[in-house]
C-alpha cells in the first residue's frame, strides 16, 4: 500500500528547513505532527511529600531539557531562589546551553559530556565529588545514572519533578494514517490507551531506538521500520528510504 499520510508523534518542527518537509515535498506525502505524550510537572504538594530540600544541594544533574524546565518551574512555585554558586552538570552541551533560559550561563559552573552518554559525564562529577548532587527526574526512569553515582560513591538525591502522561485524542479527532512514527515506549502506551481496539492491518509503524522497538513488539504490533541504522542514522533518513521503497520511488 502506497504511503500518502504519515503521523509523526512529535511536536511540529520549529524550522521550515526540517527534513520532514523535504520528504513531504519529495514524495507528495502529507506529514502531520501530533505528540502522543506530554510532560507535566508534579505539584508542589507532591514534591514536598518526597521530603527533598533543594537548597541542601550544591549541584544539579540535568539529563534533559524537560528536567531543566520542571526544576526551575518547581523552584519558582516553591519560591526558592537558587544561589549563584550552584553548579550544573548536563548530559550534552545542547542541554547545558538551554540553562540560559533560566540563569546566566557561566562555563565555570556548568559542565557537560561530549557524547550524550551518562558514562561520559561521570568523570566531571567525580572531579567535584565534594558537592551534594540533586537529580531531577521523571516518574518513569531507569537506574543507570543512580547506579553510576552509587558506584563512584557520589553524594546525591533523586527527586521526581515531572511525569510523562498520555496526550489523549479528542472525540472526532482524525486518525486516518498510512504510517505512524514513534520515539518512546510511552508513545506506544498512549496509542493503545487511546485506541484499545487498534487494528494495525496495512498501517506501517516506524520507531526510533531499541526500547521503543521492544514496546511495539510487546504490544503485539508489527514493526515495519526501525531506526537508527548504519545507513540511516536519523529517523528522517530512515523514513525517506522507507517511503521511497514502499512508494516505488514515485515522486510528486
What does this structure look like?
This protein is α/β, with parallel strands linked by helices. The chain folds into 2 domains: 5-36 and 167-246, Rossmann fold, CATH 3.40.50; 40-164, 3-Layer(aba) Sandwich (Rossmann fold). 33% of the residues lie in helices and 21% in strands. It has 9 helices and 11 strands. The chain has helices spanning 19-27, 44-48, 65-77, 93-98, 118-127, 144-151, 185-194, 210-218, 235-246; strands spanning 5-8, 30-33, 37-41, 59-62, 87-90, 110-112, 133-138, 156-166, 179-182, 204-208, 225-227. The strands form 2 sheets. Strands 3-8-7-4-5-6 form a 6-stranded mixed sheet, with helices on both faces. A 5-stranded parallel sheet has the order 2-1-9-10-11, sandwiched between helices. α3 (65-77) links the parallel β4 and β5 (87-90). α1 (19-27) runs parallel beside α9. It is elongated, with a radius of gyration of 21 Å. The two termini are 17 Å apart. The mean pLDDT is 92.
Number of helices: 9
Tell how many strands the DSSP assignment holds: 11
Name the helicity range.
Answer: 25-40%
The profile of the biggest β sheet is:
6 strands, mixed
- The assembly state of the depicted protein chains is single chain
Amino acid at each position: 500500500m502506497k504511503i500518502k499520510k504519515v503521523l509523526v508523534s512529535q511536536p511540529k518542527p520549529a524550522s521550515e528547513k526540517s527534513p520532514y518537509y523535504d520528504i513531504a515535498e519529495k514524495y507528495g506525502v502529507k506529514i502531520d505532527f501530533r505528540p502522543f505524550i506530554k510532560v507535566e510537572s508534579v505539584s508542589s504538594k507532591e514534591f514536598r511529600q518526597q521530603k527533598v530540600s533543594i537548597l541542601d544541594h550544591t549541584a544539579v544533574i540535568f539529563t534533559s531539557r524537560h528536567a531543566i524546565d520542571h526544576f526551575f518551574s518547581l523552584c519558582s512555585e516553591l519560591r526558592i531562589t537558587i544561589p549563584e554558586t550552584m553548579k550544573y552538570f548536563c548530559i550534552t552541551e545542547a542541554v547545558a546551553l538551554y540553562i540560559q533560559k533560566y540563569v546566566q550561563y557561566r562555563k565555570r559552573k556548568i559542565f557537560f559530556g561530549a557524547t550524550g552518554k551518562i558514562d561520559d559525564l561521570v568523570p566531571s562529577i567525580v572531579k567535584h565529588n565534594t558537592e551534594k548532587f540533586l537529580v531531577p527526574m521523571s516518574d518513569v526512569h531507569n537506574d543507570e545514572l543512580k547506579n553510576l553515582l552509587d558506584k563512584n560513591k557520589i553524594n546525591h538525591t533523586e527527586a521526581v519533578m515531572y511525569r510523562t502522561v498520555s496526550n489523549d485524542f479528542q472525540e472526532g479527532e482524525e486518525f486516518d494514517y498510512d504510517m505512524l512514527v514513534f520515539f518512546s515506549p510511552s508513545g506506544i502506551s498512549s496509542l493503545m490507551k487511546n485506541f484499545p481496539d487498534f487494528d494495525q492491518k496495512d498501517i506501517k509503524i516506524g520507531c526510533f531506538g531499541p526500547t521503543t522497538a521492544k514496546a511495539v513488539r510487546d504490544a503485539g504490533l508489527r514493526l515495519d521500520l526501525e531506526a537508527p541504522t548504519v545507513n540511516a542514522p536519523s529517523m528522517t533518513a530512515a523514513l525517506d528510504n522507507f517511503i521511497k521503497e514502499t512508494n516505488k520511488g514515485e515522486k510528486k
